[in-house]
Write a structure and sequence with these properties.
- The complex is a heterodimer of chains A (364) and B (546).
- Chain A is built from nine helices and twelve strands.
- In chain A, strand 2 and strand 3 (126-128) form a beta hairpin.
- In chain A, helix 6 crosses helix 8.
- Among the domains of chain A are: 106-231, Sandwich (Immunoglobulin-like); 240-359, Cytochrome Bc1 Complex, Chain D, domain 2, CATH 1.10.760.
- Chain A is of the alpha+beta class and 364 residues long.
- Chain A has a five-stranded mixed beta sheet with strand order 3-2-1-5-8, with helices on one face. In chain A, strands 4-10-9-6-7 form a five-stranded mixed beta sheet. A two-stranded antiparallel ribbon of chain A has the order 11-12.
- Chain B has one domain: Cytochrome C Oxidase, Chain A (Up-down Bundle).
- The radius of gyration of chain B is 23 Å and the shape is globular.
- Chain B contains 17 helices and no strands.
- Chain B is an all-alpha fold.
- The interface between A and B is large, with 88 and 93 residues.
Amino acid sequence: MNELMRRLLFLPPQASGFARDFDYLHYAVITVSMLGVLAVALALLWFSFKYRRRTQTTDPARPRPEPLTHAQEFGTAFGLLALFVGFWCFGVRQYAVMQRVPPGGLLVYVTAKQWMWSFDYANGNRTNETLYVPTGRTVELAMTSRDVIHSFYVPAFRIKKDVIPGRTTSVWFSAVRPGVYPIFCAEYCGLDHSVMRGRVVALTPNEFAERFERTPRAPGGATHPLAEAELGGNGELTSLAARGERVAAARGCLRCHTLDGTPHLGPSWARLYGHEVPLESGAPVVADAAYLTESMMEPLAKVHRGFSPIMPTYRGILQPAETAALVELIRSLADAPIQPTAPLVSADAPAVTLPTALDGGIAP
Amino acid sequence: MTAPSLTLPRTVEEPPLLAPAAPADYLHGGGVRSWLLTRDHKRIAVMFLGATSLSLLLGGILALLLRVELLTPGPTIMSAGAYNRSFTMHGIVMVFMFMIPAIPTVFGNFLLPLMLGARDVAFPRLNLASFYVYLLGSAITLTSLVAGGADMGWTFYVPYSTTSPSAVANVAFGVFVLGLSSVMTGINFIVTVHTMRTAGLSWHRLPLFVWSLYGTSIIQVLATPVLGMSLLLVAADRLFGIGIFDPALGGDPLLFQHLFWFYSHPAVYIMILPAMGVISEVVCVYSRNPPASYRAIAYSSLGIALVGFLTWGHHLFVAGMSLFDGAVFGVLSMFVAVFSAIKVFTWTATLRRGSVSFETPMLYFFWFMFLFAFGGMTGVAVATSSLDIHWHDTYFVVAHFHFIMVGGTLTAYLAALHYWFPKFFGRRYNERWATIASVTVFVGFVLTFVPQFLLGNAGMPRRYYAYPPEFQWLNVLSTGGASILAAGMLLTLVELGYALAAGPRTERNPWGSRSYEWLSASPPPTENFENELVIARGPYDYHLPE
């Protein structure tokens, strides 16, 4: 049944964990919609036939038909509203699944530019056009653009997310079976928009680990055509976090931020990623790639509580690749040990006295 | 220039009070100059009919070129640059120069005063100015063609539009000026409905077309300035680099999307509400029945106009919107869908116990109902947040809005053109040829856009010059449909052109309508009604003798 509907509707294969659920909702909504249209069409046909004009002259006086009653009008309205809101409930639930990235997945940084995709991995690998992922594992993409807005679209995974310059947007999926799936750019981006395509190559976890997670020039690596053709590298691959450290030093980040939990002019980067950040105003946010990028580009938008709004913007200064490296650096410190000298985390400090700091950068 | 006169007729003849002889109709008398400087709403409407028809022709030719290009997965007849410029111009011309102005400025202008029993709109000179501002805006927009074309798409998304090496600024200014024309018409209509109703014409006796024009005008007046402002800021970003929207200059590209859709989503209702008004008139006339619920149709127009302002965010579901925003914009979109669906059911129920005949306008009513219901239900589908993720920016969305906006607006426009043709020109079109043209248009339309729904399901993004070869056969089918649609439109042009030149003369009220515009002669005299009209019945009282 699933396969029949999928083929009738020309849908691509269901290659991600949630694609099948999305398609079930798709079938339900489209079927109900088409039945509704059919019902209207049949009613029109029936009325047209039954009440067709039989004489060309003015027909005999007919009594004025009773207009619809309030009960009929409101009954229809609320019935429809219930139906549509029903669709909406399922839709929003699935939308929430899409929006909330499960923790602990493989994070890949995506950079879009006119007119190509490139992918940076934490181990320092970089590929163009082709994204390699293991099956059965959550893959999170942290995406940004170097020029105009693009949109990352993999029909077989039923995912799409705009890729916006100066921001990081996230999307996630888990591929259910090995295969090659096309990537399209879905947001019009200029002359070669229609050939800004790529592909996702889903490998079994073993194959992925063997071919990809090792450094490409590792012994035996050269026997892997994938590594030869796509992975590049010069034998001394630097991990993305290590690159991030270099960027942080070069761009002056470390003058205000520390890597070991010591508070300074700015919040420490240790144990920041994935934790809740209390803000000067408004509800706390979780420090994810999007928040960290926003804090680099527009530092005063959401200021960490307890810190002065003194950070300058890095918009136009940090390149997307540098942003990715910094985010990866901060992510690599998510579970970093905190220096015992750091005053806010001494084990015997009473939690009640410093709730702000404990809620924030340094989770218990 | 003559002195302004709001209420008195401006012809040389005095209106005969009880004259049995028909006075000269508005079409005759005076030379070209009297047309170009006229303040008669009917002549302005006819000039708008000419101008918007040219826009439709231009937009249609561009559409055909696009479809021919898409016959093959690679280059067919043009380069990628030319393709991008063509779809941009197709969208701009069709949206801003045809669909937004067409029904209000042509049929609204002509019929609103007649339906109100008035001699003219409230501000006749503003009305004429609106026409010339429309021409000016169109001319500025079209200068982009001479300047090498503009390639940012009709949506102007920044930062592409602020950095594109093409004539974006010309189009932005042109659309800004077209917006002014739209606001002028909107204000004029609102004031006209409030102040120019004749004796006995209460709000609940207004023809439904008037209600829909009223709702449209509210949207035009409230939303268009936001578009004008946004486009000026885009132009300023381009020309002076002030950095409102361009992130490279510290701007926010999503701010533009919010502002743009704050206008452009209600603009969808600017296009469809007048069409709904036309459909309400047509279904009552050809089934000789009052609407199944006048209230439901009238108030749902206002409901669409108001709630339509709160749904713009559903264009941003994949733009990094928060879950909360996505949920709110999703449910508000469902509310609009309910208003539209109520109208569909009410129109259907209107046929019940009627006396239904099947002249061309009624055929267009059936086409409208199918396209609008089908397109509307796919609208509910794309408002279902999670499903929109797959469909967003694919051909599914292209097919959806063509079904709603083009299928809805164009079929209603053609219905209106045939239904009021005797009113405009005092002549009848040929029913047989018009029927053939109408069926051709419908078949062509469905064949053009149903394959596009499937292409969208399969994952073909919109605005693609080149596409993977597995999408080809559906594209060929769609192009075939577009050719049939074009043939139908061409046949309509010929058939109506012939009727205009040589159609048989018609009597005052050939359809037996009870609506007030038919109380004047067809075509109407310059002053519309020989005597002041006193309304003593509703516009759909088919149980009373005419």
